[in-house]
Amino acid sequence: MRLIINWILSAIALLIVAYVVPGFYVSSFLAALVAAAVIGIINATLGLVLKVLTFPLTVVTLGIFWIVINALMLEIASAFVHGFEIRTFVAAFLGAILLSLINMIFHWLEPKREARRG
């Protein structure tokens, strides 16, 4: 159940970013759901490998290079998902920043496991 909620929240985050960032387009909620799933798969495979390989550069840039990696992952996902389009790298970069912030807010608002038990 938790996985499905996170998936839906990721799709909502993509729709918010598409509304705010010019050059970042999502045609429908279904396209956002598919894009969220593809982004998750790409980040779990290729993104993980790239983050491990570029870790020294990430340390030198104080973590900013991870935003570049996330922007690349968004662009790769947009190549595979019909209805999800990123027109420029700047849009992907801004989208990666905003997606990180939105996901952080969603995670912060999520009830903690200890609070749900009691």
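That was protein one. Protein two is written in the same sequence-then-structure order:
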Amino acid sequence: MKVIKIDQVPKTPRVSPIFTGPVTMQALVDPDLSKRFLIQQVNFDKGVRNKLHTHTIEQVLIVTEGKGIVATEKEEITVGPGDIIFIPAGEKHWHGAAEGFSFSHIYVMSPESETTQVEK
């Protein structure tokens, strides 16, 4: 067993065209320890989100801080700490901080999942 304290995990800046601004990532489970799950916390600066994208395998988001939005092509839902979001494989979606708020969530997904950015 291993206990992970999020506030003790270093935040690493993540630069990618999928994000509209600054984010940091915290690897909560070392990939060498788990071949079945990627578990990371993503920390979005105020108003930052990722762009519309899909995954080849389902994804779970667990909101830990702030106020965020999770959206598909048809709806936008405001989420907060304690909310859990299940995103089916292939569903076009985006998620990130609500305007004027920072936002953090943990994501859980398969390391075999591939992400395709739909929005430019």
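The two ends are 42 Å apart (CA to CA). Keep this in mind for the problem set.
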